[in-house]
Design goal:
five-stranded mixed β-sheet, two-stranded antiparallel ribbon, 341 residues, 12 helices, alpha/beta, Glutaredoxin, 7 strands, elongated, single chain
Length: 341
């Protein structure tokens, strides 16, 4: 600790002085050399510490906290990838004591939140890269797997498709063979939830819904011919639904001539309540209700209402977990890909 305190003081002093100088000046070059010399001095000190006291918890703690060197032998756009890939190289996964120190959780938060782009594909790719390293180290495997699933729980993250993370984590790591800390019923419940979520991930083909409208007529989602379909799942007593439904009605009136349509599905309600809600909010688009919820089970996953899905011309899911004011962003993005904007 004495060395680190002394190094930090000297290094900060040089860096602060450097900030006042201009590149190309003699003093700038001298101070840069001094800074590099100090940094090499620290590297040499740590190397001796790691070699001479390799079994001490403090040594492993200190070593685990070291960042990998930024690679100079790769293209600029690959530097972050290799930094992330090598981020855990200094951690001794054979020593579970480190889990009870701040270094592991701090590294994990930085790795998943700062070094990983916050979209579902990147999040799971980083999670897989890490968890796969720990198959032979049960305590780390359990800790990382559970932390990632909890952190990206669909109701607790702003990812468009957090279900993608949950589904892939469940399918790869929360199996009977690998989730050694869970009993068979817990594993079954996780796999069942993953199955329900896994049918409506972004990029997947949407599924048809056949149900009954307020007049007792059968309605089919895929019989609608608009290029973009909005699947709106709501409950008449839901506070957020009461806020979003009028906005959706306004959005529909503004866009109904732009090759879009709305298919609204009421869930967990009663017939009279649903019909009163439609009339009160003047929901003039397509409305259906299935008291059993069988028409949507394992087709369009809904955890918290309201839930909005956007399907494109090919009826692929291009957006979900949206607010009404985000629908245009998703539709316009898809149109741009097609060269329509």
């Amino acid at each position: 600790m004495a060395f680190e305190n002394d190094f930090s003081s000297r290094h900060k002093s040089v860096v602060k002085y450097l900030e006042k100088l201009n590149p190309g000046e003699y003093e700038f070059d001298e101070q840069t050399k001094k800074k590099e010399s100090l940094e090499q001095e620290r590297i040499d000190y740590l190397d001796r510490l790691f070699t001479e006291h390799s079994d001490l918890l403090f040594t492993k703690f200190k070593q685990a906290g070291q960042n990998p060197k930024v690679r100079d032998d790769v293209p600029e756009d690959k530097k972050v990838y290799y930094f992330r890939k090598e981020f855990w190289d200094n951690v001794d996964f054979s020593d579970p004591r480190l889990i009870r120190t701040p270094v592991i959780i701090n590294k994990l938060k930085r790795y998943m939140k700062e070094l990983t782009a916050q979209n579902q594909d990147s999040v799971f790719a980083s999670a897989k890269m890490l968890v796969d390293k720990t198959f032979a180290y049960p305590e780390y495997y359990k800790f990382f797997s559970n932390w990632i699933v909890i952190q990206y729980e669909p109701t607790k993250t702003s990812l468009m498709d957090p279900e993608y993370v949950f589904v892939n984590m469940a399918r790869n790591y929360f199996t009977r063979e690998r989730a050694f800390w869970s009993d068979s019923m817990e594993v079954y419940a996780i796999q069942q939830r993953a199955h329900e979520m896994g049918q409506s991930l972004v990029g997947q083909q949407g599924q048809n819904v056949i149900s009954t409208d307020q007049n007792g007529n059968t309605k089919e989602l895929f019989k609608l011919t608009a290029d973009y379909l909005i699947v709106y799942m709501y409950n008449p007593t839901c506070e957020h639904c009461m806020e979003q439904t009028p906005k959706l009605v306004d959005w529909y009136h503004k866009n109904k001539n732009n090759n879009v349509d709305v298919f609204a599905i009421a869930i967990d309600t009663e017939d009279s309540e649903w019909k009163d809600y439609i009339e009160k909010n003047q929901m003039v688009f397509h409305n259906v209700y299935d008291p059993t919820n069988r028409s949507i089970y394992a087709k369009y996953y809904v955890d918290i209402t309201p839930e909005i899905y956007v399907l494109n011309k090919e009826r692929k899911i291009i957006g979900k977990n949206l607010k009404v004011n985000q629908i245009d962003i998703i539709v316009n993005r898809d149109k741009e890909k097609r060269g329509l904007n």
